[in-house]
Amino acid sequence: MFNAEIYPGDGEAAMAIDCSIPLLSGETDQPYLSKLRSNLTKSFATFKPQFLLFNAGTDCLRGDPLGRLDIS
Questions:
Q1: How confident is the model at residue 23, as a pLDDT?
Q2: For 14, 30, 32, 41, which has the most beta carbons within 10 A of its beta carbon?
Q3: What is d(CA 68, CA 39) in angstroms, rounded to the nearest whole number?
């Protein structure tokens, strides 16, 4: 999940994304969580991890100038 208005900035990075979930600047909690939930369900249907580490980052948080999202 990434702000498609600012990432990826190059073709190499874009090619490395297995599951692309583009967001727009200002995306809020409910649409974000809905996209996360539905795409995790799809991913788990095809990928069966033995271990999962979810790094939500911090640039998605409200007020962070890097990610430009609005997640509480």
A1: 94
A2: 32
A3: 21
